Amino acid sequence: RKEVEQDPGPFNVPEGATVAFNCTYSNSASQSFFWYRQDCRKEPKLLMSVYSSGNEDGRFTAQLNRASQYISLLIRDSKLSDSATYLCVVNTGNQFYFGTGTSLTVIP
Amino acid sequence: DVKVTQSSRYLVKRTGEKVFLECVQDMDHENMFWYRQDPGLGLRLIYFSYDVKMKEKGDIPEGYSVSREKKERFSLILESASTNQTSMYLCASSTHRLGGQPQHFGDGTRLSIL
Question: CA-CA distance, A34 to B114, in Å (whole number)?
Answer without folding.
Answer: 36
